[in-house]
Amino acid sequence: MNASLLAALNDAERLLVAETERAELAALDEDAAIALEARVRSARNKYVSQYRRGASARVAEKGGRGMARPENKRAAMKAEAFEEALSRVSRRVAALARQSAAQLRAERLAAAKAAKEGHGPGTRRAAPAAGRKGPTVTGEPTGDRALRSPVTEKRRASTLAESARRQVKRDSRRASAG
Asked: What count of other Cβ atoms lies within 10 Å of the Cβ of residue 50?
């Protein structure tokens, strides 16, 4: 990180930014990385809002945003430092999330494969419960899912557009008649 940005930070802020270095991030698990991301985002938001409040307060006396900006340089530098730190942490969180998603997907596929192999033609299946209450399970979608498909959505959109065109035509006739 730029030395001038680090110089604008106090000790506690420097420690927080130091936690976002590559070696420290590599040691974190997904939950710890998410918690660090929240802390860094909070600090970034704090200094961004301080910068904006300070700049907007000086606009009237300085005559413009450009003239008010140099006096608010420290808050802007802190906000930039935390923005860089946040980008590093966010990239790490995204990488960890991709890894855990791939791991979960592999586990689900393995479980599905095992279940499929376990229910082959030579194995016995469980008999349905005799006193079972509730709807029967079918392969057809039920409820709202049965009503939503690309074809029905397109038909619905077409109907809405047609109704809107009719309404516009009616409104324009009334406007020209009145």
From this structure: 16
